[in-house]
Amino acid sequence: MAYSKRCIVTGAAGFIGSALARLLLKETEATVLVVDKLTYAGVPESLKEVGLDPETLTSSNPRLSFLKADICDQEAMDRAFAEFRPDTIFHLAAESHVDRSIDGPGEFIRTNVVGTATLLQAALKYWKTLDDVGRAAFRFQHISTDEVYGTLGDTGFFTEKTPYSPHSPYSASKASSDHLVRAWRDTYGMPTLITNCSNNYGPYHFPEKLIPLIILNCLDGKPLPVYGKGANVRDWLYVDDHARALLLVNEKGVPGETYNVGGHNERTNLEVVKTVCAILDELRPRAAGKYEELITYVADRPGHDLRYAIDPAKLMNELGWRPRENFETGIRRTVQWYLDNEWWWKPIHEKKYSGQRLGTAR
Q1: pLDDT at 358 over 70
Q2: Is position 55 annotated as part of the catalytic site?
Q3: Domain map (residue ranges) of the chain
Q4: Does the predicted TM-score (pTM) go above 0.85?
């Protein structure tokens, strides 16, 4: 692909950020500076296949470099822009787990709100130093979530015009960051783009999230926790399809616009869990019986939104995006990846997160 921009990717040791970085380095000619604080969910091993040494954070790939830094550090962000001189920034660094936001909202406000404002100021300062051609070509691309829209009933879809109605500290912090990005566009004229995505899944997903948690609990023979009755609905998007959408928006999106990214793959949480169980019954049968027998219903998450579903028509019709995976193909690939890549998840399971319940605080 004839895409050779200099890209800062914040949060690229995380799930979606690492998928985007791998895409940029494998399928384009882009040069990438990863900016990541390496909090608990930052896993530099996720970039090992594109040349990063996870121990030293040095790269054998001349198009990849790594800066361990906090996006709330204004001096460090100013220096990153001044020294790397990007054509674009993909901003994915965020605290992202709703349950953790219930237990500790302050870190979500700091990273997602203050961090975004810090990056916007660094980008603006740098953008003002560019010539007219450079200013016009520059993009600040902010990656957000469908959770900013709140919850849906049994029908309907979120569109780019849906009013914001966040219900958790996480979604409120992301809504705030979206508004900041729009404000920098409207106030200063800096070319910005926003994408709001549905629930992602796929390889390299930190195991606190539903799908990897269920896969690893199955392999460990542990109970499979399902909130409430498992009736909450999510629209599932394979992470590599999301990464391709982000790249397409960066190339062809109109500055100042928002694009929703979703896969039209609605499933209840219980359906997702049962699907994972059925695939594992086939690929790695359990001697003691079916994996579905491990399902355990637990008290629901506080403020648990009933249903999310995205209408990606704008992205499809205006920019030509199409997902390559549906839920059936994507979930099978995901399960197989976890079976094949114990080297990645086992150290996380042993040292960082072993499946304990989060987000019960009131």
Answers
A1: no
A2: no
A3: 6-206+236-264+306-327
A4: yes
